[in-house]
Structure formats: structure tokens, C-alpha cells
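Recall that a protein's primary structure is simply its ordered list of amino acids. Everything else, from secondary elements to tertiary packing, is in principle encoded there. The following example makes that idea concrete.
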Amino acid sequence: MSILDDFQDFGLQDSIDVGVSLPASSDFGRFDLAGPANDGLSNFAVSGAEGKGLFSVGRGTCERNVTRGRGQVLAVACAKDAVVIATSRNFVLRYNYSFDNLDNAGSFECEVELARPATDSRVQDIFLDPSSYHVLVNLQHPNGFDTHYIHSHWRASRPLVRMKGVSVCAVGWRPSAPPEREKGKDARDYRLVDDVQAEHTTREVLVGGAGGCLYTLLVETREKKEKFFKKVYEFDGEQICGLAQQMLRGGEKTFAMIITNVALYVLAGDDNLEQMFQAYNTPQAFLEPFCDLPIKESGSALLWNMGYDGWLHGFAWLVKSGVHHGFLALEQGTVEDDSSFINKLHLWQLERAEQAKGLGDPMGMAMTEFHFIILFDDSLLVVNRINGKVVQHLNFQSRSSRVTGKPLGLITDPITGFVYLYTTDTLVDVGSDSEDKDIWRVYMEMNDFKNALNVCQTNAQRDTVLMTQAEDALTQGNNVTAAQIYAKLHGTEMTFEDIALKFIQLEDSQALQEFLVAKLQSLGNEDRAQKTMVASWLTELHLDRINRALLEESGEEGTAYEACVSELRNFLSKHFSVLDVNTTVSLLASYGRMDDLMHYAECRHDHETLLECLMQRGDVRRALGVMRLPKVSRELVYKFAPDLMSLAPGLAVDFWLSQKNPPLDPRRLLAALVPFGDYSSNEDARKHALRFIEFSINALGCHDSAIHNLAIALYSLDDDELPLVKFIRQSAESALGSLCFDSKYALRLVRERNRPRACVEMLCVLGLYEDAVGLALNMDFGLAKSVARSKDLEDEGLKRKLWLAIAKHVIQNEGHGCDQEEHISKAVGLLDDADGLLKIEDILPFFPDFVTIDKFQGPIQHSLEEYNKQIERLKVQMDEATDIADALRKDIKILETRTAVVSCEQTCARCGAPMGEGPRTSGLPVGGCLQPFFVFPSGLVFHGVCLCKEVLDLVGERKKARILELMGQLAETPQGSTMISESDKGGPIPVERVQKQLELEVGAECPRNGEIVIRMIEKPFIDPLHDKEEMSGWRIKLRGIN
């Protein structure tokens, strides 16, 4: 059976928890003293468990014959699941109830016999430190008192010589301060954290002796004796009843509490106890009590309990008249104010309990987290520590009881919280599965709602407490507090609508808003729809508060108004993720809160909505700031480009030009730029638009026709035609193939906008030079001449035609009303401008018949001289042609008689074999009437078959078939024959004729130096159709890529 099975069998699994609480003012959670919130769970047995109420006896631990024959029980102590028992025969027995000991046969661990006790010695008391390592045993004998020390690893005791004669009545061990933890997140049980130093030293221990003497003791384990034992203080006429101390945070200060039969003393100071008490050992200074006890009487040992956080939380001690108890706050207290360590101190009077009448005097007491358990002769009285009411009277001396022997007392494990009842020969546990079952209701009835919520175990209990707390706040008129409490409810009959309606009926909008805010904070991520609804409602409430603030301040934006606006924006910043976008935008817009709408869009990183608002307000600079954000999409830049261009063209273009890596797409911005290509647009805006167009063309190299068309439109709006003409000319010069702009559109546009020079340039670009010259002549004679001189005009005939048109215009249209001599001089001057394309005879027909020839003598004489020079040049050229023809005839005659000598040792250019031997080429027809060899003017010699093979590698399929056919005919014809007997044509063919045909096919040019090789330059070295294996061998394979 596993440990978990043990939990299930004994009903303790549900008691496991990881929190701890201060009964009065803690928020650490809770722990169950009877449950497995510790290591002490062995020897559990359900059968025989007594008591059907809150606590029961013997339900888990039941050790019969606990002394194991070593006498009767005299004193018992426990800590950290270890129980030590001192017997009447001077033995100390140790039991271990920790989880680590569950697998052993029993819980008994060891026994120690006290070393050399004095005659007739008897154990007076036994003390165990919280770490369970160190044990002090005080013995009484006729000659006085002795004290023995036992370590948990020892099997023999050591007498402490310096303590001889001291009657020990109380011991205050010093547990170390627990480490700091993150509140609410660190769930470790700091009570069970091992203290490394605790095993080797007792630290300074406070020891209370008879007569009111207070000592300090330190025992080092290695030395096996006390390091020092000193008297530090003495109470005059008081008897020490209990001691407690704990190191404070940092380990340099110590808290100590001393209880006597007269008063309670609290002090905190130096870590050295001797130094801490030294200040009170002078006549002028003495230790003042924290409070005097109402009844002067001796009591039991001081009891205290430790929480999961590792701090001492509560203390109590039993007196004859009742129980003194209080709560500690060691973590919050300060050394300067001793009283800050104690929260409350009460006396529960036994005489007020009806159930205690007739039970006699109390014999002992144990303290749990929420109860006192008081021992009488045959029963236990359970008292609630919170309200002081008796909740159970448990009789453990029934017929079937597992408790035998005379009851001696109760002990509480300060670390694990387990309670044990011990008799003269029995040790049993006193436990509860649900000690805190109704504690929440007790706190609630006392209106201590904070602690009630700390101990609630279910949502239903928590809701009940919250409902009561909220109703109490409403009764007191604190609606805002009630609203915050109502928001914490979960799964109650009072729905969200009921609570909201309650505050609406109370006409308390502030309380309603607080309720909604608290409700929104309490909702989880799974309640998305509810969070959206609540957040939207809160948005509307904030807007309503803003309106009311304006009305109260007569429309002035005062302090209250600004505070409301600030609250709204903080709310939008915090909850923008749960707000519905459409609903929120509609609300803000309907209230006219455009600034808040922009704030909301900015919180959501909704740049589109933010830009829309900024554009509506004309806030261009802020809009540009948003567009410059790295997270803003370029699509938004394109979308808002028209609005931006219409509001601030200069800033818009500057922003567009600044966008790089990558730059903006000019085509996507056409919608913003096209409106500026018309006369109705603003002149300054046109300049900025043209600036971006020029940047797109020149810097970005944009060739899009729409961009260039817009450039034509923008240039054509300027009265100065020079930039337009320059742009058209540059576009034509840089164009590769077609123009970047629509030439027909450009020509129509420049004509409509009366830009004649640009029109002339466009006509030239289109190749309509005649129309260009005609249009230029109507406005500028020089422009017409520049058209005729155009470098792009290469047709000499067209140039001559243009110059003739210019001359005709000058002669016929410009001659009226001017000096005839000047007119003729101007016309004759065109002959020089035309660079020889015009002659005097070309322009003479344009002159009237009555013009005298005297005016043209000079040009006519010049023309005749030029003709004479041309005739002389032609004669020289004819003589040169005659000489060249004669030289060619001589060369042809020489070639006809040219011979070449081929030796037998000369090698074939293809196969490398000597001419005197046969060719090494195989696979082709050989022998017969095939020519034995061929020699070329380049000096290369080939066997006949080798030459055929060489040529076959270079020619196409048809010619290859022809060569093979001729070779076959000659190879089949015996050598010396003059005729080939059979042929496809049916008759014999002369051998010489076939040889001539073969010579024409293969010997027309050298296969190594002729044109046939030059034509093979474009042919690949490897044929992809026939050389697939060769190609695969050259393929490059990249690593990691198939």
C-alpha cells in the first residue's frame, strides 16, 4: 500500500494544503494539525478511533506499552515528528513518525540510558529542540539537580557539569529566521526546511531556573559539553513559567518572550543574549513587563505554534483559572518597539464554560491552529481560540478506549502541529480531519471578514463571506467598498445583472463603476465575452463622467474634466485588448472624443484608424510621424497619399523621398499625383509633384509609361517650354527600343496646350521630320535648320528633301517686301548650311523667271568646279579598277599551273599516318577508285578517306548522305576502271566524273582553315541529343541539393 493509499483510507487526503495563516491577521492560508501537512504519518489505524465530533483520540498513532518495560512515563517532549519519552528507570526512548520511517517495522527508533545518574535520581522534565536534534533532561535527586544532554545520533547521555544544581523549569530554544519568500507564490513549508547549523549546535538557549533565575546555554556537538552556561538575569520574587525566542530576519537580532506567574515580558535586541540582558542588570534599569497578568498564579509550559512561513504565530499557557493566549507578528515587528511583536493577549476563563463544571482542575493543554485542547482526568475539552466557545467535550476513558493508564498530559509538535496524549504507559494522537471546517463562519459572525476569507475552503463559503461583507458595507453606506466586494463573487445566486441593477437603483454611478472595474479585474481569459461587455460599459460610464464634468464647469476644461479624461485614457490603455473595436470606436465618435479615439487607436497599434483621425483633423506632421514608425505598413502610406498630398504637398513629397530600403513605388502614388497634371491644380503643389516624378525617373530609374506621361503633363503646364523639350529629347535619347511615354498622347497634349517647340520635338521623335520642319518654319527659321541637321536623321535623301523645303520657304515666302540682293544671299547661304546636300541648280527653279543670273555667278561657278573635280575623281577610280582586274587575271593563270609535292613520309593531318601507308580511319568505304590523298594550299595533307571523315563531322545530314554515296560508288569500283557500271540512273558513269563530284564536296576548301570551320563557331561542343552521358558528367552538383 502506498502513502497516497494511506491518505485515502484514513480520510486525510483532502486535508493536504500548502499555505499557512496567522489566526488573527495572516494571509498565508491554513494548515490542518490532524492532516498530513508534515512528515508524521505512521502507525495509522481507523479501528478503535474514539469520538465522532471535531477531534478524535487514537485515530492515527497509538503506542501501547510506550516505555517498552523501562518503567513508567515521567515526561514527554516532541518536535518535527520525533517524540522523546523519559521513564522512571532513567531511560529516554525516541520514536520517529516521519515519512522517512514509514518503511521500517515500527516507529521506535532508539533508547538511551542516562549516564551515571545520582542515587535516587528521578527525571523532573525533558526538553526537545524544534529541529529534534538536541535533548535536555533535568533530573532531581536528594542532593540537588543534574541536567543531561543527548544528541539524536548518540546512544548515551552527557551530563552538563556547569548546570549542576539548577532546577530547570523552562527552556527557550532558538529557531533560525526563515528565508524570505515571494508572497503568494512560494508554497514551501518552511517549518520543515532543514537548518544545517542546527545539527551541530544548540545555539544560545534560554534556560529558566527555580527562583526566577534566567540562564543562557550553548552546547557544541563536537565538544560534547556545554561551551558556556551563564546567568543573565534574575526575576525578584517571580517564578518562570515559559520561555520562547526566535532569530529575526538577518540573523543579527533576536526576539525573546518570558512568562512568569506575575507578568509577560517581551524584548528584542542583540543576537548575543548576555549582551541583550546586560542593559537590564543595573539598579537604574530593569526589565519592565509587557503586561501584568490579571491573576497571579503559576501555569504550564509556554506553548507556541509555527506557521508554514517558518515564523512563530501564536502562544498560550494554561493556568488554573483558564488559558492566557495571544498572537505574534515577528516578521512585521521592529526591535525599537518591543510591543510591535504581539498583536493581542487574552485570558480565556475556565469558569465561564458550562461544560467544564465538575471536571476538576485542568491537567494539561495543547494548542492547535484554531483550538485549545484542555486535558482533564478522563476527558478533553476543545475550545475555539477565535470566539472562546467550547466546541467539543471528548471522553477518552470509555469501555472500548485504546487509552490505558493514568493521563499525564498533552504535548504539541510545534513544527508539524500534531497533538499527542500520553499516560503512564500509552501514547496516542489527538487529531482532526477538518479542524477549520467552520472557522470561516466563526470569523464571519465576528465580522472578521479578512481572516474568514483566508480559511474558506470552497467557492461557496467564500461567496457567503463576501455577500455578508458587502451587505454590511451597504448597511454602513459604503457603497464603493460594497461594489468592490460584490465583484469578487463567483457562482452565487446573485447574478451580475442583479448587482449592477442594485447600484443603478441606488443612483450611485461611482459605486457601479467600481463594481465593474473590480469585476473586470476578476474575470479570467476564458471569460472573453463578459470582459468585453464590462469594458464597453465602463467606457460609456467614463464618457458620461467627462460630459458631466464639462456641464458642472460650464463647458470649461477644468481640473475635474482633465482627471476624467486621464482616467478614460488610462482605462483604454489598460483594457484595449478586450474592448470591441467597432463598439468602442462608435462610442468615442458619438461623444465627439476624437483625441481619445486616436489614443485608443494608438494603444491598439491601429495605425489606419489613427491616420484617418489625423487626416480629418489636418494634423499632417503627426500623421507623418505615425507613417515613419517601423511597424506601419507601406499600404497605409499609399492609401493616405492623396489626402496627404492635398493637405501638405511639400511635406508629403519630402516624406516620400526619404523612404528608402526599399523606396516607395511611384506607380502606387499615381492616384495622389495625377490631379496635379491639370490647369486647375495649385502651381506650388505641381512643383512638388514634379519634384517627385523627376526623382522617380532620374534616381529610381522608373520606366513606367504612366509616370512619364504624367511628367509630360506637368512639364506642359509650364509656360517655359525648355524643360519639356529637354525632357522629350532626353527620353528619346535614352530609350531602348520604344519610348517610355505614350507618344500619341504626348503629341496631342502639347498641341492642345499650345507648346509648338515641344510639338516640333515630338514630331522629330516620331520621325515626322517633314511635318516638324513645316511647323518650325512657321515660327523659327533657325529651329527648322536644326531639325534638318538632326543627328538621328541618317537618310541623305530625306535630309536633302528637308533642305529643299527650307529653301523653298525662304525663297517663296520670305522674299516679298525685302531687298532682292539680301534675299538671294540668304537663299544662297542655305547651300553652305546644307553641307553640300543642295546645289545651285536645286534652288534655281524656286526663283522667279525675271531674276537676273548675275546674282548667282559665284554659286554657279563653284558648282561647275565641283563637277569637274568629281569627274577627275571618277577617272582615277576607273584606272585603279582596270589595274586590279589585270592583276587578278595574272593570279588566276599562275594558280592554274601551280603544283605541290607530297612525300611518302608526310603525315596525314587527321590520322597522323604517313602518306606512304594506308589511312587509320575505319568505318568508311576504302580502296577502289577513291582518291588516295588531298593536299591544300595551306600545306595540310589528308588521306582521301580521312578528308571525307573530317568533312562528315562538319556538314549536315543531307550533304553527309551525298558524300557517303559517292564514296561507296568509288570504293566498289576496281582501281583502274574508267566507268562505274551501275548507278541509280540506269547507265554507266565515268569514274572521273564521280571523283570530280567528290572533290567538289570535300575538297572545295581546307576543312581546318575554310569557311566551313568558321560556321561551326555557334555549334556547341557537346550535342545535347547525342552526348547525354558526357553532359551528365559535367553537371555541377551542390551539396545538400539533389
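The chain has a mean pLDDT of 78. The CA atoms of residues 723 and 814 lie 31 Å apart.
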